[in-house]
């Protein structure tokens, strides 16, 4: 993002859990701050030192420890890149339960540390469910070995859950045991062009009802996001006729057991939608080949990259009621306009996209530069808007360095007090990713 800058002089790249433990023990003794770093793809500045902490990169811990093709349980070093794990288990007919645009760089340890959501959460649920065990180096260097591969284990407190989404503030994840589902026999996708945002929710209802068990993604991009994706070469543009009059787009993916069955369901869905008295969609483009399947996905997955090519992105990753997605984008744009900031040399676009199925809107403001004037116009405005809907200021990207001051909009004072007690218990010297998550 080019937004966060630290002053670290040292990056250490241990190769084993024991080496991580030795380094952490030493830092603990000397009270030296540590920043765990995975693929460095996080969007809230969590992996960047705020002062001169030592960076511990997991990049050299990238071995698969075991994979059981019967149970689908994968045990891997935390530094394994998500795409490599996907490739590793593919010949065994399994897929990773998580998928995101950063898959070529992000690491499984980083995914777990951020409790990343991504494009498959609708189908496979959150990492709180699929992670079975973790190996973690605690802030005093102790190795906590909870790398179990048990599906069921009700033996008291489930400590691993604390590290999922802790963003490296409670310890360094060195190993991950994760349940991987069997690969779908067939995957299809279709992109719908909609005349109004108001049609997204009824469409979601119809799609869920008609596709039921084969629905695996329901992703939303507004017109501005689509135009930016096309402008910056992400995926292949739909025809002019298909996009004419479209206010937004929805990408639907199916993952099922039998190609003919799934195709029939999708075709029937498309026909029903197009033949309705008041159609919810202008048109739907069904992928006809694996290349077109990828190209449709690229239009959605490529928005992040397109936005950063267009300018500097102020990124807000929020959970709000689905019905308010468009309102949140429009209200923010109007607010910036009222401040005189919607102009070529300040804010160029206000963009909305995200995971409808998860109630997660990505509200991005694209500007010429990062400036305090724009920042002050956006915050606390957006956080107050989210709080007014009883939403979350961070649906899936985490708090990192960006939102420590905004935590209270989504967490009660009592929750924050107990989070601080947990942090104090694990890391009384405050060396583990200081300045992140908690102020
Ligand atoms: P990093 O960025 O290196 O670190 C992220 C945080 O985790 C930091 O606080 C760091 O200290 C900590 N950390 C990293 N590794 C460890 C470890 N081994 N032990 C303890 N702490 C650790 N996020 C989503 O949720 N959903 C998406 O759909 C999504 N799409 C993205 C698309 C693009 C193009 C990009 C650039 C980012 C996207 N992200 C998404 C954000 C990001 O990719 C995820 O948060 C990812 O899980 C971060 O993994 P990483 O290995 O890059 O972690
Ligand atoms: C996405 O859904 O594309 C990611 O969370 C990244 C982003 O918000 O830009
Ligand atoms: Zn996302």
TrEMBL record:
<dbReference type="InterPro" id="IPR016171">
    <property type="entry name" value="Vanillyl_alc_oxidase_C-sub2"/>
</dbReference>
<dbReference type="GO" id="GO:0004458">
    <property type="term" value="F:D-lactate dehydrogenase (cytochrome) activity"/>
</dbReference>
<feature type="domain" description="FAD-binding PCMH-type">
    <location>
        <begin position="4"/>
        <end position="183"/>
    </location>
</feature>
<dbReference type="InterPro" id="IPR004113">
    <property type="entry name" value="FAD-bd_oxidored_4_C"/>
</dbReference>
<keyword id="KW-0285">Flavoprotein</keyword>
<dbReference type="InterPro" id="IPR016166">
    <property type="entry name" value="FAD-bd_PCMH"/>
</dbReference>
<protein>
    <submittedName>
        <fullName>FAD-binding domain-containing protein</fullName>
    </submittedName>
</protein>
<dbReference type="InterPro" id="IPR016169">
    <property type="entry name" value="FAD-bd_PCMH_sub2"/>
</dbReference>
<dbReference type="Pfam" id="PF02913">
    <property type="entry name" value="FAD-oxidase_C"/>
</dbReference>
<dbReference type="InterPro" id="IPR051264">
    <property type="entry name" value="FAD-oxidored/transferase_4"/>
</dbReference>
<comment type="similarity">
    <text>Belongs to the FAD-binding oxidoreductase/transferase type 4 family.</text>
</comment>
<dbReference type="InterPro" id="IPR036318">
    <property type="entry name" value="FAD-bd_PCMH-like_sf"/>
</dbReference>
<keyword id="KW-0560">Oxidoreductase</keyword>
<dbReference type="InterPro" id="IPR016167">
    <property type="entry name" value="FAD-bd_PCMH_sub1"/>
</dbReference>
<dbReference type="GO" id="GO:0071949">
    <property type="term" value="F:FAD binding"/>
</dbReference>
<dbReference type="Pfam" id="PF01565">
    <property type="entry name" value="FAD_binding_4"/>
</dbReference>
<dbReference type="InterPro" id="IPR016164">
    <property type="entry name" value="FAD-linked_Oxase-like_C"/>
</dbReference>
<keyword id="KW-0274">FAD</keyword>
<dbReference type="InterPro" id="IPR006094">
    <property type="entry name" value="Oxid_FAD_bind_N"/>
</dbReference>
<dbReference type="GO" id="GO:0005739">
    <property type="term" value="C:mitochondrion"/>
</dbReference>
């Amino acid at each position: 993002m080019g937004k966060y800058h630290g002053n670290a002089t040292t990056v250490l790249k241990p190769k084993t859990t024991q080496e991580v433990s030795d380094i952490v023990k030493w830092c603990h003794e000397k009270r030296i701050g540590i920043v765990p770093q995975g693929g460095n793809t996080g969007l809230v500045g969590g992996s960047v030192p705020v002062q001169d902490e030592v960076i511990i990169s997991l990049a050299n811990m990238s071995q698969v420890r075991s994979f059981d093709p019967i149970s689908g349980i994968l045990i891997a070093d935390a530094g394994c890149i998500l795409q490599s794990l996907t490739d590793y288990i593919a010949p065994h007919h399994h897929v990773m339960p998580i998928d995101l645009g950063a898959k070529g760089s992000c690491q499984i340890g980083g995914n777990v540390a951020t409790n990343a959501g991504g494009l498959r959460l609708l189908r496979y649920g959150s990492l709180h469910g699929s992670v079975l065990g973790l190996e973690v180096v605690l802030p005093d260097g102790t190795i906590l070995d909870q790398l179990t591969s048990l599906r069921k284990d009700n033996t008291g407190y489930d400590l691993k859950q604390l590290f999922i989404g802790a963003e490296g503030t409670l310890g360094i994840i060195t190993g991950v045991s994760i349940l991987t589902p069997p690969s779908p026999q067939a995957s299809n996708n279709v992109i719908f062009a909609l005349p109004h945002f108001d049609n997204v929710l009824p469409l979601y209802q119809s799609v869920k009802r008609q596709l039921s068990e084969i629905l695996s993604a329901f992703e939303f991009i507004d017109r501005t996001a689509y135009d930016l994706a096309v402008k910056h070469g992400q995926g292949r543009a739909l025809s002019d006729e298909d996009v004419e009059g479209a206010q937004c787009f929805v990408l639907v993916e199916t993952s099922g057991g039998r190609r003919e069955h799934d195709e029939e369901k999708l075709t029937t869905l498309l026909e029903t939608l197009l033949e309705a008295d008041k159609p919810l969609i202008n048109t739907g483009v069904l992928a006809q080949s694996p290349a077109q399947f990828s190209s449709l996905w690229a239009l959605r997955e490529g928005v992040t990259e397109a936005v950063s090519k267009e300018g500097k992105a102020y990124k807000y990753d929020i959970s709000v009621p689905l019905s308010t997605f468009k309102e949140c984008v429009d209200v923010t744009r109007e607010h910036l306009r009222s401040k005189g900031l919607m102009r070529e040399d300040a804010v160029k676009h206000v963009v909305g996209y995200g995971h409808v199925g998860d109630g997660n809107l990505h509200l991005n403001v694209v500007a010429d530069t990062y400036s305090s004037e724009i920042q002050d116009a956006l915050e606390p405005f957006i956080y107050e808007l989210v709080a007014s809907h009883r939403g979350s200021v961070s649906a899936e990207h985490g708090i990192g360095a960006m939102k420590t001051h905004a935590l209270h909009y989504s967490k009660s004072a009592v929750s924050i007090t107990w989070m601080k007690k947990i942090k104090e218990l694990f890391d009384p010297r405050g060396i583990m990713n200081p300045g992140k998550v908690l102020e």
